[in-house]
């Protein structure tokens, strides 16, 4: 899709936003507990223009695929659990279509429960994704959505302002089954906004897998907010499988109490435009964060990841690895920000970006960055952009492996370092075949 000129892009964006808001006015009312939170987010959204290259965070990103989406809510899904892959043992699946109740007919496993509507309204008020104002000790949520960065991302605000329901869950204990959240826009056209809220009580444990798929000209925008109590552990995987005209905007806001552990692994490929924005706040230090991500771009696809990690106490740990495979005229953008203020003494943070260029026309823009004020830390970052190594290809070919198969083996090894950290339940979605665009049965 040809890039729009700057004035044309700005005018088109303004028109798209206006049309979408008008379409929502004629739709049904959201859940009562969600109405006030939606109104707050909508006001914040109204005060902020649609993304454009005039904004620093979007200056490398062509939003033409977003503007090509029909500015109206996606109609109720015609697909359901019966059309999805069979569940593996030890997995509880919730299907998210933006309309039906994902908990209908589902028995949640022991240790996890839906947050009652009476409590949800207060929680959402605390977690209101406005422009990042601190709300005090009782409003810790939006600590993650706010203090981890200067303001909530545009995609997260869009989801908060337009989602007609929120999946809100409280984890009180060690949950044995994997919780799988699936959305599939299929070939439908329109916007699918999703909002999720997770509260992990102290020492609680959960393995979570998000799967977002789309084949048509649709926008899936999802906001997931999570609060991890002291000693809690959340292992979180995300798989995004898109079509040539589909767009994915995923905003993840996580706040960690001391002693908690958060591991996030993502694999995304096939979208015309995908943008992941994980933002993590270690509110008191003494927590561990592990981030792993893998993107594949081809054709004229664009894949962005803008991560923010902030330490607000001592002895926190971060281990981050971001990987990209860029082919065709695809473009990847990575901006990883780590903030270590004076209060975060003895922080141990490592951030690495590794990218493979398979085409002379592909482009990688990568910027790992550390902002360090504390003086007793172990922090490092780095970035590499390279091609498949000729020595490694020669070694494999010298042992009778054809050139195409040798390249494929090296790519599999490059991907495996990230994909092996996805929850075991991810195997049924064929993440390696998805990333490498190999033939595989579509679940």
What this model shows, in words?
- There is one protein chain.
- The protein is an alpha/beta fold and 443 residues long.
- The protein has one domain.
- It has nine helices and 18 strands.
- The chain has a nine-stranded parallel sheet. A nine-stranded mixed sheet has the order 2-3-5-7-9-11-13-15-17, with helices on one face.
- The longest helix has 20 residues, at 6-25.
Topology:
Elements: H1 6-25, H2 32-46, H3 64-67, E1 91-95, E2 112-114, H4 117-126, H5 141-147, H6 154-162, E3 167-171, E4 178-184, E5 190-200, E6 205-213, E7 218-228, E8 233-241, E9 247-256, E10 261-269, E11 273-282, E12 288-297, E13 302-311, E14 317-326, E15 331-340, E16 348-357, E17 363-372, E18 378-386, H7 390-397, H8 403-419, H9 431-436
Parallel strand pairs: 1-4, 3-5, 4-6, 5-7, 6-8, 7-9, 8-10, 9-11, 10-12, 11-13, 12-14, 13-15, 14-16, 15-17, 16-18
Antiparallel strand pairs: 2-3
Keywords:
globular, 443 residues, alpha/beta, nine-stranded parallel β-sheet, 22% helix
Q: Supply the helix-strand structural class.
A: alpha/beta
The global form is globular
- CA radius of gyration: 21 Å
Oligomer: single chain
| Percentage of residues in DSSP E strands | 35-45%
Number of helices: 9
Query: Helix share of residues?
Result: 10-25%
Distance between the termini: 29 Å
**Mind describing the biggest β-sheet?**
9 strands, parallel
Count of strand segments: 18
Number of domains: 1
